[in-house]
């Protein structure tokens, strides 16, 4: 069974028929060539396949392609500037040595990008919690957290008696 | 590829119930975080799916004029966590919501799916049990309301009839007003883990005594459950460490814990006794009582 869907990826419009059995990850990787979204576990545990759907981090391995109808999707391929310059979040990941094999990196960069673009403040604990849907088998997470903190500079609240921290 | 034979979208509840009445074999899909995992594991084959994802009216979280809290079945765990009504009135549910899965899962998994999946480990369940939640089920022929305690029948088994859809989770004012509560999820990791035990308590305190206590437990038996004996005992008792210790002991009596790879029966029973007391200690203070030392 096929269904016609219309959606955008990184600002470019697509309109075609998808097999209802396919995940969005299948469509992104196999039909559209956005291979920055990785398949790790395939069951929603690892976050390697995460992309932003209408700005919200979502695991595409357990997201049916038909659900993408009408959505704006952002993958890692759409994060850098058009001229190839890396985004601030990407630069922070490079600068902090937060990338080893790189398999988890697209998802982490996208989630961090969403946090940054939310304009909200986060405590360190909240930041850890927001990144907890991404497994990394290489780095030990410290440098990833540093990169996320750097990306959100000015929006990470470290003062334990601020009302924000208490309200957590 | 998922083993999907057919896929239908409903845009309204009446459209969904009409489709279900026509084809009772349709499998409802909400966030898909249980359904798709089952398909992936081969436990669900040749599925004909009815998606509720386009029914936006089911995502609403509202406070009715009579004080009833109404949570649409399609509200995601992220929506539940960020909702200010729920945070103010029933924080044991928002605490449970944020303890569930990880961010990407919470962004898509729904409270209705959590309840209908029928798992004893469902993170919303112990809180909803403690809050005496009522479930509104709609079918082509009408609607009915079922208390959550009568909804869970066994592991993965719930009291939903063919043709029915869960549309609302409701909490009546008399079940939350004047109560304070606390939720503890005990798990091996702080994120992306299924509970070894879930404990939700609510209590009403007056003049240093318990006026009422309700205790909901997850993973302490084949379904989530309430500790009625302990609750009955607590009524009118002076709040003290002895009273709490007795409540903890009695709570274990209501459980039917078993040994799984996560934890042994004995360990779970120990957790029930200990964590019920800890949760109550915090709840007592939130309810305006003195700290129990
Ligand atoms: C990586 C991962 C981590 C997880 N972690 C947790 C966790 O920590 N805690 C936890 O409790 N769960 C966890 N889960 C399980 C799952 O996410 C939850 O049970 C979730 O709430 C299910 O909701 P859903 O909307 O995705 O349901 P679906 O998968 O769409 O549906 C679940 C079941 O409910 C039925 N259904 C759904 N909505 C309705 C409705 N409105 N009316 C009638 N029937 C309906 C479906 O037919 C199906 O049988 C996890 C799952 C994954 C993949
Ligand atoms: S591949 Fe999707 S979460 Fe692991
Ligand atoms: S860098 Fe290898 S998994 Fe994270």
UniProtKB/TrEMBL annotation, chain A:
The keyword Plastid does not apply. Pfam families: Fer2, Fer2_2. GO terms for molecular function: 2 iron, 2 sulfur cluster binding; metal ion binding; xanthine dehydrogenase activity. InterPro entries: 2Fe-2S-bd, 2Fe-2S-bd_dom_sf, 2Fe-2S_ferredoxin-like_sf, 2Fe-2S_ferredoxin-type, 2Fe2S_fd_BS, Beta-grasp_dom_sf, Diverse_Oxidoreductases, XdhC_XDHase. CDD domains: fer2. Keywords: 2Fe-2S, Iron, Iron-sulfur, Metal-binding, Oxidoreductase. One of its GO terms (biological process) is purine nucleobase metabolic process. Residues 3-79 form the 2Fe-2S ferredoxin-type domain. It comes from the Bacteria. Pathway: Alkaloid degradation; nicotine degradation. PANTHER family: OXIDOREDUCTASE WITH IRON-SULFUR SUBUNIT, XANTHINE DEHYDROGENASE IRON-SULFUR-BINDING SUBUNIT XDHC-RELATED. This is Aerobic-type carbon monoxide dehydrogenase, small subunit CoxS/CutS-like protein. It comes from Desulfosporosinus meridiei (strain ATCC BAA-275 / DSM 13257 / KCTC 12902 / NCIMB 13706 / S10).
């Amino acid at each position: 069974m096929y269904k016609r869907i219309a959606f955008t990826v990184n600002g470019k419009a697509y309109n075609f028929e998808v097999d209802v059995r396919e995940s969005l990850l299948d469509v992104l990787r196999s039909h559209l060539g956005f291979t920055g979204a990785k398949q790790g576990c395939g069951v929603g545990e690892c976050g390697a396949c995460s992309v932003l759907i209408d700005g919200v981090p979502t695991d595409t391995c357990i997201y049916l392609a038909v659900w993408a109808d009408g959505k704006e999707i952002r993958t890692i391929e759409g994060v850098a500037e058009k001229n190839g310059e890396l985004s601030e979040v990407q630069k922070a990941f490079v600068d902090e040595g937060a990338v080893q094999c790189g398999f988890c990196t697209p998802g982490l960069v996208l989630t961090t990008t969403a946090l940054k673009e939310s304009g909200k403040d986060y405590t360190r604990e909240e930041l850890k919690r927001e990144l907890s849907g991404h497994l990394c088998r290489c780095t030990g997470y410290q440098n990833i957290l540093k990169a996320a903190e750097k990306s959100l500079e000015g929006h990470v609240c470290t003062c334990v008696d601020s009302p924000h921290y208490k309200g957590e | 590829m998922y083993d999907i034979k057919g896929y239908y979208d409903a845009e309204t509840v009446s459209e969904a119930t009409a489709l279900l009445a026509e084809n009772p074999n349709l499998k409802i899909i909400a966030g898909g975080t249980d359904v798709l995992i089952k398909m992936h594991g081969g436990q669900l084959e040749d599925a004909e799916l009815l998606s509720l994802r386009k029914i936006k009216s089911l995502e609403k979280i509202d406070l009715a004029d009579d004080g009833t809290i109404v949570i649409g079945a399609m509200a995601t765990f992220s929506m539940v966590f960020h909702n200010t009504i729920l945070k103010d009135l029933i924080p044991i549910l928002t605490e449970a919501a944020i303890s569930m899965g990880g961010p990407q899962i919470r962004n898509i998994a729904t409270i209705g799916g959590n309840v209908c999946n029928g798992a004893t480990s469902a993170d919303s369940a112990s809180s909803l049990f403690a809050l005496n939640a009522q479930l509104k089920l709609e079918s082509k022929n009408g609607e009915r309301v079922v208390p959550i305690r009568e909804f869970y029948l066994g592991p993965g088994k719930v009291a939903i009839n063919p043709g029915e859809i869960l549309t609302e989770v409701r909490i009546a004012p008399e079940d939350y007003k004047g109560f304070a509560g606390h939720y503890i999820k005990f798990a091996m990791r702080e994120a992306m883990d299924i509970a070894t035990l879930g404990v939700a308590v609510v209590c009403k305190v007056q003049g240093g005594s318990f006026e009422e206590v309700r205790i909901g437990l997850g993973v302490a038996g084949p379904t989530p459950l309430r500790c009625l004996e302990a609750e009955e005992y607590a009524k009118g008792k002076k709040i003290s460490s002895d009273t709490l210790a007795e409540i903890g002991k009695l709570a274990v009596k209501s459980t039917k814990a078993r040994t799984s790879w996560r934890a042994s029966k004995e360990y779970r029973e120990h957790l029930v006794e200990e964590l019920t007391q800890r949760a109550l200690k915090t709840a007592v203070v939130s309810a305006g009582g003195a700290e129990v030392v």
